[in-house]
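user: can you give me the structure for this one chain? tokens are fine.
assistant: on it. calling the predictor now.
[tool input]
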Amino acid sequence: MEFSFGRAPDGKLTLGLHPGGSYMDVFDLSQCFLQSELSNSIVETVREECRRKSLEPYDVKTHEGFLRYMTIREGKFTGEVMVNLVTADGDGAGLSEISETVVAKAPAVVSFIRSINSKRATIAVGEKEEILYGRPYITERIGGATFEITASSFFQTNSRQAERLYATVLEAAALTPEDRVLDLYSGTGTISILAANHVKEVRGVESHPDSVRNAERNAALNGRRNCYFIRADARKALAAMASDRQPPTVITVNPPRAGLTKSVIHQMLRLRPERIVYVSCNPATLSRDLGLMCDRDYTLRWVHPVDMFPHTSHIECVVQVERTPGSRLSPRESSPRTEGA
């Protein structure tokens, strides 16, 4: 969960969330019903300590100040917690003491990080990190595997539903010991590592260097010696694989909300995998991309939504697409199986 620092009308530092429709104002959060009581108490402690030390919040208009964001990551299956303070550049005087106070009250915090964002962009990541307490990562267990999660890496925020999501991905992939899997937008390697236990080989493709390093550590941590990661743009990686003697039999894709480009879809279909598993957090771009994928040789078999974000309109979908050479979708085939989770 990401929280913002701001300033109240009376000048006092605030730490909480933005009111609906406003990115300037921040109200003090007393309780978040999406988060644990531990998370709520960490927010309160950090707010009090920052006020006591007279630290200044960052102003998005004047671009002056120090404290920008705080992110809390909580491993629901391990109990490990990370606190990440995102600040402007500066010496960070007093932050180590704040971390010590938080850890004394919440021993579950095994990682307290400072991320430095010297740019004007209003994003809760930084160009560099400092470890104020503990180690640079927490661990979480999903599907029998253990994953390291750093401050900058992507990992599903809802661990319990993530287990359902990835189990559905494996169901859609219908893996066999002879399969070769290509995992596009592989992130920290979750799908790759879970799939590797069932197939001959998995290759993950990811452009973010920190995520690739995470994925490589996670593969080693779980003893997946048939799992490899490539730092590359998806389109370029697919183009380079066009001449492979052993192309992938299964491709999994988990792109950002913008979905896939036409070029990525074209290059992916050129490899002619037997099955494609598409994980999407945006039904609009998913529908658009499936229209291109199923125009000729592929058939949409089923769609399985997973509610990762309860009490919101957002949904994740897992889609199974199979190769059917020479066929087009008929009206009957275009109505997929739909299930809730």
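assistant: here you go. The chain has two domains: 2-135, 154-338. Residues 327-338 have pLDDT under 50 and may be disordered.
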